[in-house]
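re the bet — no i am not wrong, look at it urself. input seq straight from the record:
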Amino acid sequence: MKYKSNRSLLTPLGKVLVFWPLLLLLVSSYTGCQYTAPLALTSTSMGVAYYYTNIAEKTFCYNLDRINRSVLLALKEMGFSICDQSMDEGEGTIKAETEELDIVIKLKKITHKCTKMKVKVREGIIIDKATAIEIICQTENAAKKLLYNKAGDCTFKVTMAPLSWPLTHEEIELIDGLPPKEAIRQGRVKDSPYVVDGKRYVPMSMKEAREYREEGIASWYKGGGRGKVSGYMTANGEVFNPDGLSAAHRYLPLPTYVRVTNLENHKSIIVRVNDRGPFRGGRVIDLSVGAARRLGFYRKGTARVLVETVRVEE
């Protein structure tokens, strides 16, 4: 008995039914036409769904605030100009642009731990699928770097800076024998020795840091050393926020949380030590502008303080 091919079963009508989704996708990609269908294409690398409605989307296991901040960081890192943003009752819209692209991003709270993100990118009437998916991928990368730590009754939001940003203390020459940004990229900063103006500093161990307690003079700084107050990274690669509650220390591991008490007025706060310094004047700690204001010595410039480490919940 001879084998009989089943090719005849694929009738002309059958061929149309099999291949019509591909034809619709090709048409919509080049004309910008929107077609609502239950099918979707998926980016295998990041799990991004891209529908025939020309909208890329993904659900994240992060809250709305975290994704909103991550989107802004991703857009900035990709060089897009943010032209409008709004947030209202669990939903948000962010609009960005370049000379050729128009970008609309929709965020929606699903639960207190989950957020849906939708991205649509147009170049005139052409839909830019690749850029839409990349925005979602970069947002996820940013969200992974955006950390929240709790020390005492304070919750600290931590954001990693782009490596292209300058350090707050550009006089740092080496960290663990490497150029500072290479050490940051490799994660070799925490308690590694470093060199400033030819002098080698050796931070204390984690065990020593747990017992750290010292009195001395505190000062404050605003980053960069040239009056700039934004766009700088700390010695462990975090975004320096002059209005936040952070500090620089020569010997504590990065990061470490300490309670700083102003011994002149007895005001006390917890700060995150994420930078190196101060390197002059015999001072024990350099605080951000926001921390100095909270401790009541911003106008005076310095104060005698007690610095002691505290435990942190990750």
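see?? The chain has six helices and 20 strands. told u. also The chain has two domains: 11-145, 172-313. so pay up
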